[in-house]
Amino acid sequence: MSIPVLCHVFLILFGGFFAFQMTFNSQKFAATLRMNSPEAAAALKPAGFLMSGTVLMLIATLFGIGGFTATGELLGAMGLFTAFAFIYNMGLFLKVFPTFDGADHEVKNAIRPLIPLVVIIIYFCTS
Fold first, then answer.
1. What distance in Å separates the CA atoms of residue 14 and residue 69, rounded to the nearest whole number?
2. Largest CB tally within 10 Å, which of 4, 14, 27, 91?
3. What pTM was estimated for this model as a whole?
4. 24-45: string of b/e by CB count within 10 Å (b at 16+)?
5. What angle do CA 30, 34, 39 make, to 5 degrees?
6. What is the 3-state secondary structure (H, E, C) of the chain?
């Protein structure tokens, strides 16, 4: 297996895990984000379905199902999203932006978007 294929498979598994957690375990996932209201958990379910759609598109581009071959464009959009998420979360951690509840933002939440971003950068450097 080549490195781009391994990156592709990792992004499918990583995104699938978070899509599954947001869709079917949204109450606990919202609690880990310090959003303890029922409305926050209800808002994460559509995000989980959107993430599931992205994972399905990654699967379709990996196997060429239905003529989908735009892997670069899909990963480019995901790379921009994760880069902006990292910048925003680092702004919360460094107290550039205020958090919604006034509490400190944990560094683990700030660096979490770096995982798929690094994999996407590796994908583009090796393909």
1. 21
2. 4
3. 0.84
4. eebeebbeeeebeeeebbeebe
5. 50
6. CCHHHHHHHHHHHHHHHHHHHHHHCHHHHHHHCCCCCHHHHHHHHHHHHHHHHHHHHHHHHHHCHHHCCCHHHHHHHHHHHHHHHHHHHHHHHCCCCCCCCCCCCCHHHHHCCHHHHHHHHHHHHHC
Q: Residues, the chain, total?
A: 127
55 or 106, greater pLDDT: 55
Question: Any idea which residue has 């379905």 for tokens?
Answer: 49
Confidence band of 77 (pLDDT split at 50, 70, 90): very high
Backbone angles phi, psi at 99, to 5 degrees: -80, 160
Per-residue confidence band for 127, with pLDDT thresholds at 50, 70 and 90: confident
Task: Count Cα atoms within 13 angstroms, Cβ side, for 46.
Answer: 4
Return the HEC string of 12-29: HHHHHHHHHHHHHCHHHH
pLDDT tier at 36, thresholds 50, 70, 90: confident
